[in-house]
Amino acid sequence: MAANISSLEEQVFEFAAFMKNVDMFPVFFTAHVSLACLVVREDSKDLGTKFRQNHPFTLWLCTVIASVSGVFLANFLFGDPLVDILKENKLIAFITILWYLINYCPFDVVYKVVALRPVFLTAAILQECLRLRFIYLGVQQAAKLYPTGYVIIIIGGVIKGNGYGFVKIVERLIRGKWIPTTNDLLDITYFAKSSLYASVLFLLQHMEVLAVPVELLYLGIVVAFVTLRLIIVLGGVRDPLLPIELPICTLLFGSGAEDKDTGKTDGVVKKEKVIKNGNDREKQDKKIK
């Protein structure tokens, strides 16, 4: 029995080490870039039916930014050339091929295949694995440059794991959309928060506060990320962390947390708020009379 348990522990550790060190290119990158292409394409629908045909370079540039946004931000934060990633010819060519197939393939065959629920779900799972790799590398990069700069280390992980959330406002502006309220500093999304929590855990392990092998910690976060992403995709939940955070926010920051989005609606004004605004207007009208 003890031998079986020991063997199982070895297998788990080996799998954890594999997940931490496996080459993410091309399989995981294919999933990530494909979803980035979908995001940019879907977000461009309100710009006109011919936007993709009339502005191919703009769409390509925005797709590249969405695919490697974390690298752009990390280069800016750590003083490296902002366009340093563009020297990776193989990666840029890879992104360009996927961009073209998803946006301009005859009869939209590739787009329709990627948008299928099973394919999309598989891509989302693979993307979460890649996102955690980005977070881990961001933490490692920041810790190497600023060993005791704990806030910088956390920021390094967050921007690598959720770069698009922070540059989305600029990427949309390139496409002619200006929505200043849609950024992850003002409206913090699940992807920003999960990147933050993972970065904190990696930092605690780096500081030896968490006496856990980094491989096992990495595997645990991968499982958590994949589970939460499945809840988002299959359950239609915008932020699966919100039910846990709401009571804490209410306790720490007061009743203002009541107005937070429940996670299943997006931009819906609460009925009570509308009634309150209506009553306020009536009172103002009476005063004017």
Write a structural description.
By secondary structure, the chain is mostly helical. The chain has a domain at 20-180. It is 72% helix and 0% strand. The protein contains 14 helices and no strands. The chain has helices spanning 2-21, 27-43, 51-54, 56-67, 69-77, 89-104, 109-115, 117-145, 150-161, 163-174, 190-206, 214-235, 242-253, 271-288. Helix 4 (56-67) runs antiparallel to helix 10 (163-174). 27% of the residues are buried. Mean pLDDT is 88; it is low at 260-279 and 281-289. It is found in: Endomembrane system. One of its GO terms (cellular component) is endomembrane system.
Structural key phrases:
about 290 residues, mainly alpha, 14 helices, about 70% helix, about 0% strand, globular, disordered C terminus
Short synopsis of the structure:
The chain has 289 residues and is mostly helical. The chain has 14 helices and no strands.
- Helix and strand element order: HHHHHHHHHHHHHH
Q: How many β-strands, per DSSP? A: 0
- The gyration radius over C-alpha positions equals 22 Å
Helical amount: over 70%
> Residue ranges: pLDDT <50 for 5 or more in a row?
260-279, 281-289
Average pLDDT, rounded to a whole number, is 88
Share in β-strands: under 5%
Structural class, from secondary structure content? mainly alpha
Number of helices: 14
Please report the distance between the alpha carbons of the first and last residues.
86 Å
Largest sheet: none
Approximate shape: globular
